[in-house]
Every structure is written in structure tokens, then in C-alpha cells.
TrEMBL record, chains A, B, C, D:
One MF term in the entry's GO annotations: dioxygenase activity
Enzyme Commission (EC) number: 1.13.11.64
Protein name: 5-nitrosalicylic acid 1,2-dioxygenase
Source organism (scientific name): Oceanibacterium hippocampi
Cleavable signal peptide: none
Enzyme class: oxidoreductase
Domain Cupin type-2: 84-155
Protein keywords: Dioxygenase, Oxidoreductase
């Protein structure tokens, strides 16, 4: 946080209650839909060639644009779909929010291991139809063991943590990668990404469902 | 909620993870200050004459303008100072967020009574230096019994409830006054206020602390 | 809220900071799994005969028992699976938390209409693979139009609202059914259920995943 | 997080919706009070001799014992009173929750400086009656410059972050002191405290307000 007290506290204001209400109230979110066909289409662009760092940035996420002050499908929930390719082993990482996975397709396991070691006793084996959880601040990594890609529906509760400036990541695993997830500090979830990486990437996706 | 599906779901978008991050991350709030002298000055304009509905809209609230998506001193906390005049009895009301009061000056009591009746056994008597709590969805009303005005420092946790579109009020007490606190539905905390009332009010206050 | 000040405030305590820490810290949730086979098995008991009020109480929900102070799959997220039978039309209801639906099987629509009227323009049509949202405090009802049952994976953010005592329901639609969701006030989500209904029900389900 | 998958997932359960409701609903918090006289009395035991590490563990905090699943004055707010002695300079530290201070007595400043350096331009000067904020994850330290002790009323939003297992501290400043605030990992806010320190301390305080 770079700041100075030199010009007073312009960002701090005393207002009457009615003025507060005017700023406090938000438009209600409209009901909405993200069609399965569009989700598949959006994921289509992610081939083995255009991923970065062999990591999990191949996903497609559903955002509701009536929301300001953070981003997600709702004010408190993020929903993403992410394919994991056969034989792929994503890197260990952790964050201070819970991850819930519904496994739509494929088979594999998630290792939840604070030492970042893939041990038999810290694996959770899953296949299509299962639900699993990786708790807050526990190091975890996904592995796809089926011949077909695994498809993960990931549910996270980070949008309101981000609104509250309370979100922290260590991605990939390693103390040197700890970051407070606020604007200006980080360009992506993964600390190995540079701003240049992000500008050069071929993954820019935006699809809206028509009917 | 007025809405239609006629033109699809323009507000619902599928994006790649990096695009999500760009929208997700918020600027960290800057450290800040609201000077006591400015708080006193801001409250100065509230005389017995310019209040509305004999109610509690005489307060001054502290907002941090680095915050978007709701309003408050912080993403999850609102802090307000409110004088209650000698002999004054504010109307019963309730809301689904907790109210914590630190009593800076004066003496009196808060009645926490779901029937909206001022009963001896549902009163909490307070004086300067005390802290009291009115829980979520419990009907409550403040009474000042001292010769000098009471000064209440009120701490509420509604900013993030409002961000989540989860805030409901019944103000004043009465089922007909139940309202979902979202934009377009309500002009103020109090259901008796009309938009005209708010436009005519003489309470518009804005002060910033210089050093 | 029934309470009295007659014996002081035994439930309010002043403690040193270290004592606070001892009560504040919670055990971290363990990683976990709910197998798809077990989810199917759990839903097996819900036939057309044993449901109550023609309503949506046929679901199976995933809970993590390391959590106290509320209930859900995680501290802030609830995940449930619910079949909707062919031709079935669930009753309109609303609540101050967002509902996100991933449609696993079947076809149908959700009407999001504050007047509780099934109108063409307030319907969201969905089929297997789609994701839809019913925002906070918007009246909504599900209809299954396919020959096979629809299977809904419902994601709600009520566990931490309940922990905060901020959860309100109007179920079924109607002002007389408004309820603050706290212990002692309500026996179920649906206001038409009585305690006797709940005791007589044949739906008691508990399954744990072995490996 | 130490855990094993060897005996299945006993802590993960599939239940019917009514069973969920039975675990979900919490008793509403009762209205309550913490008397100013009791707060003063509770703080009385903290002399210059019995503090640990020259740090800020001299405070008294207000807890509501109707709450389970975390601890605080309310489900989302903690309120503490803490004296800072003349000339005292507390150590820099940071945490992923916002701190709001109402300064009841005395004079001094808070340095909000990520480098942990007491610089003129990152100080916020305060005196009795002022309100200040130290944002999430910003390193901060308090200094009392008046001849009399300063009295700080501190408002934090960590109780629901702790309920969500999302709370992290770096106290005192230093990467080696980063800790996920969950049971078993940490005995106190301050990483320098050992379990033995805590057992030997003379600060154990518990006072309840009678009327």
C-alpha cells in the first residue's frame, strides 16, 4: 500500500444518513443464464498449446455484470468450468477460501497436502458425479487419470472476500508467492505470470447467452 | 425486480480466468481519518426543527470513498454518530443486521421488544461508557432520559449485506414497511420517507478531514 | 425474541485477548468427498408419494461436520441435489440469498417473477448443462417439462447468513409466511410445515462416503 | 492440516433438507450490555509489569456467549478496549481484516507503513474523539504521545472471517510470522507467544455486567 497523509484524507468523508443510503443501495441482480453450449464453446479454445505454466488457467468462468465492487456469478460465489487433460498434474497452491468441486466428466484425484507432496493418504479420488472439497489454506493439486479429459465445475467463495480485501493466495506453493489479492499488486492468480504474459496470451474469451 | 428475458442475457458473460481477475481485484483501501472536531461540526446542523418523522435520521456517518459496490467506513462495517435529544423516544424498527452501540454521552435506555412495547423487562439501561447490542431482526427503540443529549456511536455490519443484496428493513415497525434494501425500491432507511421528502431536506452534509 | 433483563447479562462477558483467541479459533475443515453413487442412493428414497406440500423438500444436501455455528458443505456455501419430477411445478418462494443452479439432467424452466405469476417473459428455460441464477429476494418457481425427471444441483450462500442471523424466507410466497430463520421460530424452510409433519416424515436420510 | 483418507470421509454426510435445517438454524442472540464501569475494572489489571512482548495484548474484549462457531461481540464484529501507555510504541503487524479505531482518550499516532518504518508521511495523528482506519494487510503500529495513557476502542471484522477459516495474521511484522488462524496452529495473535507463556500469564479476565 503506497499512500501519503500529505494532502489530508480526501477519501474519508462525513455524510448524512440519507446520502449514505444513496451510495449504499445496489441494483438487485437480474435473473440470468449461461447456456451449456456456450460454456462448451468457450472452453473449446483451450488446447494443450495455449496454456501457461502447465497450470489451471484453462478455465472458463461465469460472471454477472450487474455486480460491481468484485466479480463472480453472484456477490459471494464464483463458478468456473475447467478441463484437466489426461495425465496432467496441476501445481500445488493454496488460498484462504474454500474450493468445492463437482466432477462433471473424467476421473482422477486431488491431493490435499500442506507439504506439497503427492502422498497416497492425502489424495481424494474422484470420478464423474462426485463432489469434493479443498479447505481454506490447504495446499492442493489436481491430477487427471482418465483417458478422456476431466471436467471440473469449481465453486469458490472468494468474490466477497475480494470485496472485503481479505483474499490471499500462495500460487504456486511457496512462501515467496504469498500475495494479498488487491489491484496493482497482482496481475493474475499465479505469481509466475507477468503483465507481459497476460497481454500476449491467446485466451481472451467473452460469450453471452442469447435466449 | 422488473426484468424480461426478451433480449437474452446480456448481463451474463462467460470469460477466461485472467479476465475475471482483472474485474475481481479491488484497490486496497487507503489508511484514513475522520477528525472528532469534524464529526461534531457535521452533527451541528441537526436541530430539533430539521429532523424528519421524529426519527433517527439525525446522524452523521463515516464513509470511505475507495470502496465501491456498497458504502461504509469499511467493506463490512458502518460507523455513525447520532445525537438523541432529551426526552426523545425514537420509533421501534428492525433490520436483519446487528447494531452495536457505544454510548459516548448522556443516559437513557434501548427497548428491545418484538411487540414494539416499551416494557421494563425488555429495556437495556445505558450511560456514557457502556456498550450495548440490539440483535438482528429484534425490534428496538432508543430513549434519552438525561438532561443533556445522548450521543450514540453506532456500529453496524450492513455494508457487505447490502453488497450481497441480503439486507431487509422494517422501519418503522410494521409488516407493511418490510423492504428489500436495493436500489429503486427504497429512497431511505425509513419507509415513510418519500423521494420528495429527501429532495427537500436541509440535512445534506459532506465534510472531509484535512490533516 | 423472548428475553428479560431481570437477571443481568450473563451471556455478555468481558475477557482478555488471549481468552478471546481460545474461543475464536476453529479447527480447519478436513478435505472431503461425497460420492456420486451415494448421492444417487440418498435421492432414491424420494418418490412422488413421500413428499410434503408438493414442494421442493425432496433434495439431498451435502454437509461438512467439522463445521459448527451453522451448516453447509462449507462455512459459506450449501450444495444440494434435487430431482424435479416430470410435469411438476414447485411453489413460488423467495429468500434473501442467491440461488445458483447447475442443471445435471432434464429440461424445464424457472420462473423468476415477484408477482408469483408464471409469465413467458420471466421464465428462464434450461436444460442439462446450463447454469442459471435466481437472485436474492426474487420470487421463483421451478417447472420440469421433460419426460424424465430434472436433476438440479443447487448452490446457495445461506450458511454464513444463518451464522450471522441475517437469513429471511418467504416460503411459500406470501407476506404471512415471512420468517427470520433462527432456532425456535421455524422448524423448516417451508412455513406450512408443522413440527408434527417433520416428526412423521419418512425422509430421514444420512449417508457417508467410505473411500 | 494433518489428515488422512484411510478411514473414508466420516465428517462428510448426505442428509435430507429437514435435517439440514435442524443443524443450520442458530438461536437468535439476546440483547445485551457491557457496562463502562466493568470495562474499566477489567482493564485495571493491566499494568506495565504484566504485559508480554511490549505488545498490544493488554486489551479487554467484549464477547457474546450466545454465539458459537467463532467469537466476538456479534457474529461479524469484535469490539475491544485497549490502553496504550505514554511513550509506548507497539510493534508493526498486519492481518487480512480491517481495523477501525475510535480514540476515547489520549493522543498519538498510528503508522500505516508496509515497510514497517515509522515515517512522517505514513502516520495518522489522532486524539480523543477521532476515528481512524488501518486497512486489511497494511502493516501498522500505534504510538502514544500524550502524558496520560491513550484508550483505544478497536472494531474488527474478524469473527466471521475466522468462522470461514479465512483469517491470516503476520504478527509481529515478518514473513516468518505468517499464520493461518485456525485451532491447533496458533495459541495467540502473536507468533512470539508460546503455549507456556499463555499458561503462565497473569491476565486471565472474566467479568459480566449485572444490571
Amino acid at each position: 500500500m503506497q499512500w501519503t497523509n500529505k494532502n489530508g484524507y480526501d477519501w474519508c468523508e462525513l455524510v448524512d444518513i440519507d446520502t449514505l443510503v444513496g451510495r449504499l443501495l445496489q441494483p438487485d441482480l437480474r435473473p440470468g443464464k449461461w447456456a451449456g453450449e456456450d460454456i462448451r464453446k468457450a472452453m473449446g479454445g483451450f488446447t494443450k498449446e495455449n496454456r501457461r505454466h502447465d497450470d489451471q488457467r484453462r478455465g472458463v468462468t461465469l460472471v454477472h455484470n450487474d455486480l460491481v465492487g468484485s466479480a463472480g456469478l453472484s456477490p459471494s460465489i464464483s463458478v468456473s468450468f475447467q478441463p484437466i487433460l489426461p495425465g496432467e498434474k496441476l501445481a500445488f497452491h493454496r488460498h484462504n477460501y474454500v474450493a468445492i468441486y463437482y466432477w462433471v466428466e473424467g476421473e482422477g484425484y486431488t491431493c490435499n497436502d500442506d507439504d506439497g507432496i503427492d502422498r497416497e493418504e492425502t489424495r481424494i479420488y474422484w470420478k464423474a458425479g462426485d463432489v469434493s472439497i479443498s479447505p481454506a489454506w490447504v495446499n492442493h493439486a489436481h491430477v487427471c487419470t482418465s483417458k478422456e479429459p476431466a471436467l471440473q465445475l469449481a465453486i469458490h467463495d472468494f468474490p466477497d472476500l475480494c470485496y472485503r480485501r481479505a483474499m490471499l493466495n500462495e500460487d504456486p506453493d511457496g512462501h515467496e508467492n504469498l500475495r494479498h489479492m488487491v489491484k496493482g499488486v497482482v496481475p493474475s492468480f499465479n505469481n509466475l505470470d507477468t503483465v507481459e504474459d497476460l497481454e500476449k496470451r491467446s485466451q481472451k474469451i467473452s460469450i453471452k447467452t442469447r435466449s
